[in-house]
Amino acid sequence: MTGPQPLPEGAAKVRAVEDMFDRIAPRYDLLNRMLTFGMDVGWRRRTVAALGLPAGARVLDIACGTGDLCRELRAMGYVAFGVDRSAGMLAAARTSAPLLRADGLRLPFPDASVDGIVCGFALRNFADLGRFVADCARVLRDGGRMALLEVAEPKPRALKLGHALYFGRVVPLVGGLVSDRAAYQYLPKSVAYLPAEPELLRMQVDCGFPDARRVALSLGIAQLLTGTRRR
């Protein structure tokens, strides 16, 4: 009897993630709303609000997907543009912001060229999270802001057990009925890629975000990481 398959790493992870998001792009937004009971809308709004930049600031959405954060950025008066590796996601995008197919670990932008960076639910999908944060630091100007939204596991035992049941059983079931079962089996498992809170914050500080902060959202089922770039 074979045990659970290990999660892919390195180049294999990059290929698997890109292929998965290409497949689930057409119904990705629908499932986000269904599986979070619409809470993801408020999480994204809070992510953009956490930037605290003046109107007209240039903000890059990394792993922009179908453009949810880009739309929120524009609604709050920012100049938004996005990048994503998945051609399927970009094809399904619903935003008028300029979008570019590019690797979030090798951003095709000059040093200190943007005022803000956001990223939604993608940290666990990068092959090298430290390299991602470092390249964000590279393209952000001094005083620029970063806000990273990601899933999390609640700490209270009862909540943790309930969340594990929902995320591990219900999400793959509903995802399989509406979209792609294999993808929605992988997504809950991919939380294992995320470092613990102290390491996440240390990673930001080491890359030039001395005020790195983490806020738990919705009783800890999501998290928001913020920081100000200091050169």
Describe the SSE topology:
Blueprint: H1 10-24, H2 28-36, H3 39-49, E1 58-62, H4 68-75, E2 79-84, H5 87-91, E3 99-101, E4 114-120, H6 129-139, E5 140-151, H7 157-178, H8 181-189, H9 197-206, E6 213-217, E7 222-228
Parallel strand pairs: 1-2, 1-4, 2-3, 4-5
Antiparallel strand pairs: 5-7, 6-7
Helix pairs in contact: 3-4, 7-8
Rg, alpha carbons = 17 Å
- How many domains would you count in the coordinates? 1
Tell me the overall shape. globular
Overall residue-averaged pLDDT value? 95
User: How many individual helices?
Assistant: 9
Q: Give me the strand/helix succession.
A: HHHEHEHEEHEHHHEE
CATH topology: Rossmann fold
List keywords for this structure.
231 residues; 19% strand; 7 strands; Rossmann fold; seven-stranded mixed β-sheet; 9 helices; single chain
Description of the structure:
The structure is a single chain. The chain is an alpha/beta fold. It has a single domain (10-228), classed as Vaccinia Virus protein VP39 (Rossmann fold). Helices cover 43% and strands 19% of the residues. The chain is built from nine helices and seven strands, in the order αααβαβαββαβαααββ. It has helices at 10-24, 28-36, 39-49, 68-75, 87-91, 129-139, 157-178, 181-189, 197-206, and strands at residues 58-62, 79-84, 99-101, 114-120, 140-151, 213-217, 222-228. It has a seven-stranded mixed β-sheet, with helices on both faces. Strand 1 (58-62), helix 4 and strand 2 form a beta-alpha-beta unit. Helix 3 (39-49) crosses helix 4. The mean pLDDT is 95.
In short:
With 231 residues, the protein is an alpha/beta fold.
